[in-house]
Amino acid sequence: LALSFQMEGLVTGESSTFADWTLDANNGIQITSGASDFTFTQEAAGVVDSVTGGSYTSGVNTPFNFASTHASTLVAAAVDGTSLTPDTTPTALPDLSATTFELAPTFNGFIKTFRVWADDIGDTGIAEAST
To answer: Is the pLDDT reported for residue 1 higher than 90?
Structure first.
């Protein structure tokens, strides 16, 4: 069981939440940015696993393009065609089927593309999707 996401666009500011799919305080998937990088997080039964990296410089209408895979055995991500070191410690994917997926709940910008795959598109797939 796995999910893969890709998003491309322009963003203004240094901190954004691109995707938030949270059931409760112990289960969710989030994709965020800080002042200099992106974080791809999943939490299942209170166990948090994440990948952080990729170059991000805050500003006005800053381009971004990333992709990630969230699975019961890994969190993997790529930013601008470059794969980040995956987190291979997850042991579960949270069941979020009964909750709302929020696209860009804390975001100032323009989303050109947002895609979801109900599968692990692989390291090559997320790298290609983020170019």
So the answer is: no
